[in-house]
Each structure stands twice: as structure tokens, then as C-alpha cells.
Design brief:
6 strands; single chain; alpha+beta; 164 residues
Length: 164
């Protein structure tokens, strides 16, 4: 029996909430349990023009970012859902502890605002994340990692400044 649009959206919200909670806890098996596990899975990092292909590619993205910012945490600041896609605005923060974009680890704090599109499968696969596409200001991230004194820190979405 096909889900109604509202049932699909509610299912997506539950999966995204579980996914982001597991990311914040760095419980990678739980993160990966929310995702489809085949060659169709993907992770796109738009500001880097980088596409991680397949389930193994998506896992590789997480491994690379976990190495660069092993204590990262996210705070969701806004949520939008339509059948098949959930969008989350969030603030990601942590400490730069591994190489990222050619910047060696310097132990500087980072905090960036980003948007993530969670793209879901269809039909019986609608309860798994098919792909993720993230958008953020990579130059701001790099400047924070380098410890530049005038590096932007965002507009404060995690503090409730969401423009609403």
C-alpha cells in the first residue's frame, strides 16, 4: 500500500532525525543504517564540486570529515520537507584536528552554517536516504581552520537568528 504524501514526509522526518542524532553521537553504524546500501547511493559536496559515488563513497566522505573534525556536532536550525526530499539548515561546529582542503590541523574551532538535502528512494525504498547534497561556504570554513582573525562566523542561526 502506497504512503500518502503526509505519511511519506513523516517517515522522512523520522529517518533524518535518527540520522542526524547518530551523526552527533558519531555512531557510524546507526548513520549508515539510515542509508541505502548500494551503488545508487551518493554524497555530493557542492562547494567542492565533489561527488562520492555509491554507499562506499558516502562512507568515505564521513571518514574524511570525521578525520578533519572528529568532534563535530550539528544543530538543526530549520526543516523543510516534501515527498522524496527533506532539507535541513544547520550549524556545524567542532575543532579542526585533521587535514582538510590542504590545511594542516591547527586545533582551531570551526562553526559554519549549511544546508543539506536528504534525497529518499521511492516506493518500498522511501524509508532510506538515497543521497545527500550539502551546501556551505567552504572559504569561510578554510579561513576558520587557518585561524584567520577576521574569518566570518555566520549569522547566528543556531542562536535563533533564523530570519523568521
Amino acid at each position: 500500500m502506497a504512503l500518502t504524501d503526509q505519511e511519506q514526509i513523516e517517515a522522512q522526518r523520522r529517518v533524518v532525525e535518527r540520522h542526524l542524532h547518530a551523526e552527533n553521537m558519531h555512531q557510524w553504524d546507526d548513520v549508515f543504517d539510515t542509508m541505502m546500501r548500494d551503488e545508487r547511493t551518493f554524497y555530493d559536496v557542492v562547494p567542492l564540486s565533489t561527488h562520492f559515488d555509491g554507499f562506499d563513497g558516502a562512507k568515505n566522505f564521513y571518514e574524511l570529515f570525521e578525520e578533519a573534525v572528529p568532534d563535530f556536532r550539528t544543530v538543526v536550525t530549520a526543516a523543510y520537507d516534501v515527498p522524496g526530499t527533506s532539507i535541513r539548515e544547520l550549524t556545524l561546529s567542532g575543532t579542526h584536528r585533521g587535514e582538510y582542503g590542504g590545511v594542516p590541523p591547527q586545533g582551531n574551532p570551526i562553526s559554519i552554517e549549511m544546508a543539506i538535502l536528504f534525497i529518499f528512494g521511492e516506493g518500498d525504498e522511501g524509508d532510506r536516504i538515497f543521497g545527500q547534497r550539502i551546501y556551505f561556504d567552504n572559504e569561510t570554513l578554510l579561513r576558520q581552520m587557518r585561524g584567520e582573525k577576521d574569518a566570518p562566523t555566520g549569522i547566528g542561526l543556531a542562536q535563533g537568528r533564523n530570519g523568521a
